[in-house]
Design goal:
With 276 residues, this protein is mostly helical. It contains 14 helices and no strands. The chain has a domain of 55 residues.
Length: 276
């Protein structure tokens, strides 16, 4: 693929997000959605283009462009709780805006197309965890406490549900505090777990409640890493560099940890035969 033709994927990605931006803007009458999804789409398209151009830090640049936007601008400046508690909050209010739209696009229906791409390119927790020294996990054998993600998922739902059932006043203020405290806990636990298990992505594998949405929805994702068996020499390099322990040499829907691929593309970089 030569010239500008190799950039057709980032161009298509940008167009898709522009369509979403315009549709939501026209449907809600809120200009925010036009700017929001245009920015995210532009960041993703630019990052994809930089990756195609072989820039080493393309994915991390996208992570920080989107992650800091959501954490700092939407969160700290606009006081929007973009954590899972914010999703439950707006959902119980019956309001299709802010966190509910974010979750619908990025974490519930979006993964049917781009899988766990959110985790690799936009998550503001992972953008910090990916800077830690254990980019390749010390072991690719999973621990037995992955069930903790369901505990944190139920805890978040129970917390917000109880606030509504008890008629607690000033819910918006409580959600703002919950956003600050929740992020502090996520970072503290994520960093501690990374050092304890020598695995930057341990939090994503065992604790993160959002994966309860992401895992089943990404099983049949349209965008996924596949292996050309005719080129593959079974050297195992792709498996060794994968931060999420995915067996990308297996093209079946039931491949090992298949629903956890974050599309970081480290496997494609490591493959000596360009089989992925």
């Amino acid at each position: 693929m030569n010239g500008m033709a190799k950039y057709k994927v980032p161009a298509l990605l940008w167009i898709v997000f522009e369509v979403v931006a315009v549709v939501l803007w026209r449907a809600t009458g809120n200009l925010f959605y036009l700017g929001n999804f245009s920015y995210i789409g532009t960041a993703l398209a630019a990052g994809t283009a930089l990756y195609i151009a072989n820039w080493r830090y393309a994915r991390h640049a996208v992570q920080f462009a989107i992650g800091t936007y959501m954490l700092v601008y939407l969160g700290f400046l606009c006081h929007e709780n973009m954590q899972i508690e914010g999703f439950w909050y707006y959902l119980f209010l019956g309001s299709f805006e802010a966190a509910t739209i974010h979750y619908a696009v990025a974490k519930i229906f979006g993964p049917l197309v781009f899988g766990r791409g959110w985790c690799g390119y936009a998550c503001w927790t992972a953008m910090v965890l990916d800077l830690l020294p254990y980019k390749v996990p010390a072991t690719h054998e999973r621990r037995s406490f992955g069930w903790l993600r369901y505990v944190t998922f139920v805890a978040s739902l129970t917390f917000v549900g109880a606030l509504f059932l008890l008629g607690v006043p000033n819910l918006a203020d409580i959600m703002w505090v919950a956003f600050i405290v929740g992020n502090a806990i996520y970072y503290a636990v994520g960093i501690a777990l990374a050092f304890a298990l020598k695995d930057n992505r341990a939090f994503c594998k065992y604790i993160c409640p959002v994966t309860v949405f992401l895992k089943p929805m990404s099983k049949r994702a349209v965008v996924r890493v596949t292996c050309d068996k005719d080129k593959c020499i079974s050297c195992g390099k792709c498996k060794r560099v994968c931060p999420m322990d995915v067996d990308v040499t297996d093209n079946s829907l039931d491949r090992r940890n298949g629903t956890e691929c974050i599309l970081c593309m480290e496997c494609t970089k490591a493959c000596p035969k360009k089989a992925l």
